């Protein structure tokens, strides 16, 4: 498992509490792997299917810290525009200040912010592996004029050299053909970095 720390602008940071960060990453990695076992079984696959095919023994993990100070005119600003995440899962912790919204049935829904609680998002690569049975979550962050919102996101992702594609066991050429083309994780990340955050624009590029 490799992990990277970033700011909300995606820049690498020097963290004086590296031991704490590393321990947090180790523990959330274990949580992510257990969740993926349950997801594998829910798809009718072996419990370790996603872990094995996505090469999670050398998987990629990213931790991103975000801070949104109070904004005097929140109606004119956006914390983070609508997007979905690369990787399999995103484990998000918040400081109790609301601001996260998810798109549901064409409407933006406020997600309550509970402290000491992990919110789990399905990410793009899980949508691909499941051939669309699991959908990555389109979300955004809005700002407030009252309080500072902070969040800590941990992305659980395949190894960089893994080609992410629909699980063969879920495919049927007539009833359930592949809905996505395979793409190496590192190429997907490069594609994401070269595009502005714009909904599921990157995921759409691998749809058939």
TrEMBL record:
The keyword NADP does not apply. Keywords: Iron, Metal-binding, Oxidoreductase, Vitamin C. Residues 59-158 form the Fe2OG dioxygenase domain. Pfam families: 2OG-FeII_Oxy. The keyword Oxidoreductase applies. GO terms for molecular function: L-ascorbic acid binding; metal ion binding; oxidoreductase activity. Gene3D superfamilies: B-lactam Antibiotic, Isopenicillin N Synthase, Chain (2.60.120.330). InterPro entries: IPNS-like_FE2OG_OXY, IPNS-like_sf, Oxoglu/Fe-dep_dioxygenase_dom, Plant_2OG-oxidoreductases. Transmembrane segments: none annotated. Belongs to the iron/ascorbate-dependent oxidoreductase family. This is Fe2OG dioxygenase domain-containing protein.
């Amino acid at each position: 498992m490799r992990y990277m720390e970033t700011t909300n602008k995606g820049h690498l940071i020097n963290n004086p509490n590296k031991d704490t960060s590393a321990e947090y990453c180790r523990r959330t990695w274990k949580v992510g792997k257990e969740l993926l076992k349950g997801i594998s079984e829910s798809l009718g696959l072996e419990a370790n299917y996603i872990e094995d095919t996505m090469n999670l023994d050398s998987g990629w993990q990213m931790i991103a810290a975000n801070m949104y100070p109070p904004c005097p005119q929140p109606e004119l600003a956006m914390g983070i525009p609508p997007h979905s995440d690369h990787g399999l899962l995103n484990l998000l912790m918040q400081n109790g200040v609301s601001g996260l919204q998810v798109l549901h049935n064409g409407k933006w829904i406020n997600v309550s912010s509970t402290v000491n609680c992990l919110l789990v998002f399905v990410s793009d690569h899980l949508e691909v592996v499941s051939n669309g049975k699991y959908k990555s979550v389109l979300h955004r962050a809005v700002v407030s004029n009252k309080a500072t919102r902070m969040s800590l996101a941990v992305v659980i992702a395949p190894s960089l050299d893994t080609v992410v594609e629909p699980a063969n066991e879920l495919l049927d050429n007539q009833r359930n053909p592949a809905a996505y083309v395979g793409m190496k994780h590192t190429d997907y990340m490069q594609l994401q970095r070269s595009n502005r955050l714009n909904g599921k624009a990157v995921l759409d590029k691998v749809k058939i």
